[in-house]
């Protein structure tokens, strides 16, 4: 265990050092993240300012939703996105083979050797927005609600990380899997809005197929006491379970893919 | 001595979904159950004892890398049994990994943007090498491979030869019992190849590290590996020592006889005439047991013989004949 922790620290340190080799690119990345999220959030704010509400959600409700959405995503993605997006190349170029001959868990190695501090910009933005939203929304904050928020943030981050892992693992068998990320991001964008504004088929997809609803819109609805379609009273429990369940599925899928890994020729 | 690697009846078949043409085809091929099968390794068996150095040779696509990947736990064999250090490599991938070193000639395991030393340090953590032992190994390898000049330079700035030496050094930092190398000399110039070969031979001799390397370069095998395993098309063709391969092929030594004046046609039973340039004649010695003396005795004294040269066949030639005649020879392999 201690060894694993030391190793993770070493891996993250290595990765950070490779990034500071190119400081300009890192800073530019952070700036562009701020700008692009700023633009999206401004657009949503403008719509609400025009119509007053979005599916029964006020601007402060929406701010809470957007901050949870961004925080679960950026935490989950810092453990997974860039790492597993590269998986296809790792397989094709045979770099994966080199990782597989190390006496260390392949998933752990992948995750920590590419731990993306680039998401720091996202996290700062999300935490700032959340701090403001917490004071604005109509929630009687207490220990249970705070614990629920924290637990769902963790669970949501796990959902993100699990889905990314599954897509990456698929590359082990299919070699190509990057196109699946566009499906991920399609649903990810939908998870930015109250789930009630969507037609039933999309709700089903968001809750059961690509369960991205659990990274933001469902937990925030539960927190704000708004109705959740299909799940009703089970929504709160479902939010807490979504992360661990998806992580379990991702682990099974990962193992299966490793067993069926064929590598690339050469 | 008991075997460190046992390979018995191992096969590997790659299955790829059949690609159908066009967009619709791409979609359909996702769901179709049609596969193209590539039989990369077929019914290969051999055992390797501790301390051996074995060259794994074969043309492109012969299944060399695939075999290395199975022995290192990357791929699961489709059939047969495989045991490395008493374990099934894929089932015990991580335990196996701790005791072996692997070098891929065509892909780097070093961190591209960081100094060589940083990759080595991380390696120490991953393999839990005790600090003192690590320092000792690093000093030894650095001096043996002449890496002192570039240990602190980013990997991306190194020449291929420098990088390959660093890769090999890294694979040895944790004192592996077996070192697998997949084409370690590919792309290196003569000098770098020579350095790598001398080094590997020495590691094998002095540390007793078992070495298994794949190569296209026969000189690698001549200089490092007393034992040769030859494969083609997934199948094992030959397993044994290089001289045995020569003799298994009837060796085909070439004898050149040069005369002062053209003696006209000569027919001998001990040697077969292959080219006749008048005063210079080339013979092939088909039997290993024939000596030059036998030929000269048969020739007798009636000729104005000026010079005699005997040429051992070049190893390339031996191999070429081997590939050409492999159907008959398969029977002579153990
Ligand atoms: N992942 C894969 N999927 C499908 N076929 C593969 C795969 N990997 C290897 N093959 C095929 O298996 C056969 C053996 O390949 P392998 O890489 O083991 O050959 P090799 O002896 O290492 O050749 P080379 O000297 O070119 O490196 C080849 O026909 C190759 O096309
Ligand atoms: Mg190969």
Number of helices of chain B: 12
Shape of chain B: globular
**Total number of helices of chain A:** 13
Distance between the termini of chain B: 19 Å
Measured by residues with Cβ under 8 Å of the partner chain's Cβ, the largest interface is: A-B, 26 and 36 residues
Percentage of residues assigned to helices of chain B: 25-40%
Derived from helix and strand composition plus strand pairing, the structural class of chain A reads mainly alpha
Order of helices and strands of chain A: HHHHHHHHHHHHH
Q: Please, what is the average pLDDT of chain A?
A: 90
Q: Give the CATH H-level superfamily of the largest domain in chain B.
A: P-loop containing nucleotide triphosphate hydrolases
Count of spatially separate domains of chain A = 1
CATH topology of the largest domain in chain B: Rossmann fold
Q: Which architecture of the largest domain in chain B would the CATH scheme give at its second level?
A: 3-Layer(aba) Sandwich
Order of strands in the sheet with most strands of chain B: 5-6-7-3-8-9
End-to-end C-alpha gap of chain A: 36 Å
Jot down its keywords:
heterodimer; A: 266 residues; mainly alpha; B: 334 residues; alpha/beta; Rossmann fold; 2 domains; six-stranded mixed β-sheet; four-stranded antiparallel β-sheet; 12 helices; 36% helix; disordered C terminus; binds adenosine-5'-triphosphate; binds magnesium ion
């Amino acid at each position: 265990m201690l060894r694993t922790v030391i190793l993770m620290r070493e891996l993250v340190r290595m990765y950070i050092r490779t990034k500071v080799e190119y400081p300009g690119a890192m800073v530019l990345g952070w700036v562009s993240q701020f700008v692009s999220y700023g633009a999206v959030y401004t657009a949503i704010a403008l719509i609400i300012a025009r119509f007053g509400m979005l599916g029964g959600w006020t601007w402060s409700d929406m701010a809470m939703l957007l901050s949870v959405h961004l925080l679960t995503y950026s935490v989950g993605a810092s453990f997974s996105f860039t790492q597993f997006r590269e998986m296809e190349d790792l397989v094709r170029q045979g770099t994966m083979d080199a990782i597989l001959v190390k006496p260390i868990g392949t998933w752990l190695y992948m995750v920590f050797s590419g731990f993306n501090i680039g998401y720091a910009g996202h996290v700062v933005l999300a935490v700032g927005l959340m701090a403001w939203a917490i004071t604005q929304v109509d929630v009687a904050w207490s220990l249970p609600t705070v614990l629920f928020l924290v637990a769902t943030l963790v669970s949501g981050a796990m959902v993100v990380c699990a889905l990314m892992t599954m897509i990456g693992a698929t590359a082990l068998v299919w070699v190509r899997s990057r196109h699946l990320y566009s499906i991920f991001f399609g649903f990810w964008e939908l998870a930015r809005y109250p789930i009630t504004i969507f037609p039933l088929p999309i709700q089903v997809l968001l809750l059961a197929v690509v369960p991205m609803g659990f990274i933001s819109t469902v937990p925030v609805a539960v927190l704000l006491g708004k109705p959740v379609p299909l799940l009703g009273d089970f929504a709160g429990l479902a939010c807490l379970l979504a992360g661990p369940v998806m992580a379990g599925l991702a682990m099974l899928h990962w193992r299966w893919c490793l067993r069926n890994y064929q590598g690339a020729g050469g | 001595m008991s075997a460190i690697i046992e390979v018995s009846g191992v096969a590997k078949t790659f299955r790829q979904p059949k690609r159908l043409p066009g967009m619709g085809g791409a979609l359909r091929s996702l769901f179709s159950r049609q596969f193209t099968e590539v039989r990369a390794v077929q019914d290969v068996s051999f055992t390797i004892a501790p301390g051996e150095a074995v060259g794994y040779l074969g043309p492109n696509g012969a299944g060399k890398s695939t075999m290395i990947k199975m022995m290192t736990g990357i791929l699961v064999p489709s059939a047969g049994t495989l045991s490395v250090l008493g374990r099934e490599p894929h089932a015990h991938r991580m335990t196996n990994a701790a005791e072996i070193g692997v070098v891929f000639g065509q892909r780097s395991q070093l961190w591209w943007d960081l100094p060589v030393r940083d990759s080595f340090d991380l390696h120490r953590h991953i393999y839990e090498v005790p600090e003192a032992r690590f320092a000792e190994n690093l000093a030894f390898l650095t001096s043996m491979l002449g890496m002192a000049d570039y240990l602190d330079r980013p990997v991306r700035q190194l020449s291929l030869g420098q990088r390959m030496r660093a890769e090999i050094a890294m694979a040895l930092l944790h004192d592996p019992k077996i070192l697998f190398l997949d084409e370690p000399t590919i792309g290196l110039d003569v000098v770098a190849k020579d350095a790598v070969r001398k080094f590997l031979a020495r590691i094998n001799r002095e540390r007793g590290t078992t070495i298994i390397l794949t190569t296209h370069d026969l000189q690698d095998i001549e200089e490092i590996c007393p034992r040769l395993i030859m494969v083609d098309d997934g199948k094992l063709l030959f397993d044994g020592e290089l001289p045995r391969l020569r003799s298994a092929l009837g060796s085909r030594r070439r004898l050149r006889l040069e005369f002062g004046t053209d003696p006209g046609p000569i027919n001998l039973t001990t040697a077969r005439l292959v080219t006749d340039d008048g005063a210079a004649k080339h013979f092939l010695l088909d039997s290993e047991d024939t000596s030059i003396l036998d030929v000269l005795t048969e020739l007798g004294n009636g000729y104005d013989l000026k010079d005699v040269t005997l040429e051992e066949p070049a190893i390339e030639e031996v191999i070429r004949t081997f590939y050409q005649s492999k159907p008959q020879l398969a029977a002579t392999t153990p």
